[in-house]
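User: Predict the structure for this protein chain, please.
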Amino acid sequence: MRRMVNLRSLSFEVPGNKSWILRGCTADIHWFKTSLEFDNGLASWLTTKPRIHDLILTRAKTFSMQPPHLPNLSVVFGTPTTVLSAVSGRPITSVCFGLSGPVMLDLSNLSKSTVCVDHLGVAFDPIPSWEELNCIDFVYRCSVYVPRVQKLSFFATRSGFSPTFYRIVAPLLSRFTALKYLQFVLSESGNTSPIDRVTQLELLQDFHYHNPELRTVTFPGNLTWNIE
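Assistant: Here is the predicted structure, written as structure tokens:
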């Protein structure tokens, strides 16, 4: 890593916790993704990367760094605990939560970004079916603290969304008065039948009824509709 002095993006995903390897990376990293747990070694390395603006922590259960560190961080993905800890005191514009079961945490840190959060994403496995309800409940609670979100994204990490999920998302949209873009995304391993055109049109009408400001909807398969 010492030779890659012009490296700007780094994805470091290895089994175990080997943050010591990162000590060899002295490049000015802007985008960083890792499966490492958040330990003192990772925290120490991150303090030397003040220009990181995208941080993706796929497995970390905690995050403990003061706002003066990572001062340019604007995009963060991780567990609810990780994301909520990273937001406070930083210019976070985009948050994406990886959910696994109900979230009982206080979400008020979402309102402590130094700028307006305009993108809210949630990644979860829709099976079993109650995970979809957990997701809806979580996003509803988030809306109290980030009502000016312009883009709302749902990511299915394994299986596909149920037909019911799209219907129960619709009333939720009224919570986000500035919403312009709604997105449903499947992982590469997510198998589901395409939504037929008639159903898509019905859903678009339902979405627009609950939020007249909505302008673009993307269904799985990158099927995008623009609403005039």
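Residues 9-226 form a domain with the Leucine-rich repeat, LRR (right-handed beta-alpha superhelix) fold (CATH 3.80.10).
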